[in-house]
């Protein structure tokens, strides 16, 4: 109620300020990027709170009216014309060199700040400004596409959004069938791992006694889930997704549930890319579940392996014979997994390759290839199990030949596992996965002897 009242009050003040602005400005105000940049300069020049808030709202509205070319021109102008005040910065550098002190260091710090950072702060004061800035950064990321000319602006936006979306501001809420429909509709739309087909499908995922869904929200975007996780309560660690999502499955009674399975984690705001709060989500959900269900022993994921098939198709140095490479071509056949002979042969090839993919394969920069693996291992999970034909959906077959994996979150080991991965790049894994890798080694030895 307090937030709603404050938002309405701020919107009223802003709208009255905008009315005054329209009366004071000429009728032929430019609607292109140049006109928008002029308005940004006026916003930074410093006016009263009401007119400043109104002007910020006007900037954000006019930005929405720009086409793609206009938005790029706007971003380029922010990089080119809204950097640090060079004269002020030069004086601060000279003062620091003449006699360094904590006060001089502070002055140097503030003098080096680009003017666009203050502009972004002022835009954030507009009603709805935070959400609009998140959307603006999504546009920016889409235009960068490997180019570095807009990188300075992205660093500034990322820096500020990281502060505004730090864990202290985020609110964890459980999503259930009583959640407002506008939020439930967004859960359907934003689901990025296992598509939710309709409202009945959504209800099966959040309403039964053995299902949970949690999301992080921000006070400035109260109807926008930032990231959400879907949880299944099971008796044992699952190896396939279909039984968890089956229409006719029988719910597990809470008394028998011993495992919490995080089977889908979806980020919803592209504009918050690179601002990680997924680890906080998992850890807080674990704490919530432990308080509610103290008998839970295992906290695991059932995760996709989205980079596996692209790696197989592109990597020239796979530990494979010509015969193996010929066998891999069967993966391009539709419904190959319905052929018992093909399935048996491919399993003996794919499982060791998957172990190699996680434990040995790396990008040119030395990173794990798989983004999902980087996320969970970086959070302190252990690579527990590789599941053959865990996902038979078209997406699962296309991305990973049906392979899924379990990452185990053992609470006493999370910090140790995280340190091993962060400091040494070590993938903490179970003996079962290590045996698969050893099987690959024996396979290569057999190849050399044959």
Describe the structure.
With 450 residues, this protein is α+β, with helices and mostly antiparallel strands. The protein has three domains: 12-165, Butyryl-CoA Dehydrogenase, subunit A, domain 3; 167-303, Aminopeptidase (3-Layer(aba) Sandwich); 307-448, Aminopeptidase (3-Layer(aba) Sandwich). It is 55% helix and 10% strand. It is built from 20 helices and seven strands. It has helices at 2-24, 33-45, 49-65, 68-81, 86-98, 102-111, 115-124, 129-144, 151-164, 181-190, 199-206, 242-245, 278-292, 308-314, 322-328, 340-359, 371-378, 394-400, 414-424, 431-449, and strands at 171-174, 211-217, 227-234, 259-267, 298-301, 382-387, 404-408. It has a five-stranded mixed sheet, sandwiched between helices. Strands 6-7 form a two-stranded antiparallel ribbon. Strand 4, helix 13 (278-292) and strand 5 (298-301) form a beta-alpha-beta unit. Helix 7 (115-124) crosses helix 9.
Quickly count the helices.
Answer: 20
The helix/strand series, from N terminus to C terminus, equals HHHHHHHHHEHHEEHEHEHHHHEHEHH
Computed Rg: 27 Å
**Major β-sheet strand ordering:** 1-2-3-4-5
Major sheet: 5 strands, mixed
Shape: globular
End-to-end separation: 75 Å
- Name of the CATH class of the largest domain: Mainly Alpha
Instruction: Please bin the fraction of helical residues.
Output: 40-55%
């Amino acid at each position: 109620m307090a937030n709603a009242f404050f938002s309405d009050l701020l919107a009223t003040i802003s709208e009255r300020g905008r009315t005054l602005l329209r009366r004071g400005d000429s009728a032929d105000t430019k609607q292109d990027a140049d006109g928008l940049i002029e308005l940004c300069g006026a916003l930074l020049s410093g006016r009263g709170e009401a007119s400043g808030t109104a002007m910020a709202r006007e900037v954000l509205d006019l930005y929405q009216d720009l086409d793609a070319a206009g938005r790029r021109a706007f971003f380029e102008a922010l990089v080119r014309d809204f950097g640090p005040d060079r004269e002020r910065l030069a004086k601060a550098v000279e003062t620091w060199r003449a006699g360094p002190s904590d006060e001089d260091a502070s002055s140097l710090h503030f003098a080096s700040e680009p003017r666009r950072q203050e502009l972004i702060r002022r835009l954030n004061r507009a009603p709805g400004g935070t959400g609009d800035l998140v959307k603006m950064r999504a546009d920016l990321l889409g235009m960068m596409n490997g180019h570095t000319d807009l990188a300075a602006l992205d660093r500034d936006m990322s820096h500020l959004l990281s502060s505004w979306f730090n864990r202290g501001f985020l609110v964890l809420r459980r999503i259930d069938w009583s959640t407002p429909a506008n939020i439930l509709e967004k859960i359907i739309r934003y689901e990025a791992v296992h598509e939710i087909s309709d409202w009945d499908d959504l209800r099966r995922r959040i309403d039964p006694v053995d299902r949970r869904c949690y999301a992080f929200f921000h006070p400035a975007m109260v109807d926008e889930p930032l990231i959400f996780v879907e949880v299944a309560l099971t008796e044992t660690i699952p190896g396939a997704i279909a039984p968890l999502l089956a229409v006719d499955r029988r719910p597990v009674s809470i008394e028998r549930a011993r495992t919490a399975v995080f089977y889908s984690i979806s980020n919803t705001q592209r504009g918050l890319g690179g601002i990680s709060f997924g680890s906080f989500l998992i850890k807080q959900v674990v704490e919530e579940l432990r308080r509610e269900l103290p008998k839970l022993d295992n906290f695991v994921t059932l995760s996709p392996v989205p980079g596996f098939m692209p790696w197989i198709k592109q990597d020239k140095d796979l530990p494979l014979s010509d015969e193996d490479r010929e066998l891999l071509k069967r993966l391009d056949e539709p419904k190959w997994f319905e052929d018992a002979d093909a399935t048996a042969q491919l399993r003996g090839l794919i499982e060791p390759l998957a172990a190699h993919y996680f434990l040995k394969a790396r990008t040119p920069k030395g990173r794990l290839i798989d983004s999902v693996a980087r996320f969970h291992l970086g959070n302190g999970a252990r690579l527990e199990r590789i599941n053959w034909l865990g996902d038979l959906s078209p997406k699962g077959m296309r991305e990973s030949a049906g392979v899924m994996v379990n990452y185990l979150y053992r609470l006493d080991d999370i910090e140790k596992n995280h340190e091993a991965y962060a400091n040494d790049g070590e993938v903490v894994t179970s003996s079962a996965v290590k045996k698969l890798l050893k099987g690959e080694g024996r396979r290569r030895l057999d190849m050399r002897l044959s």
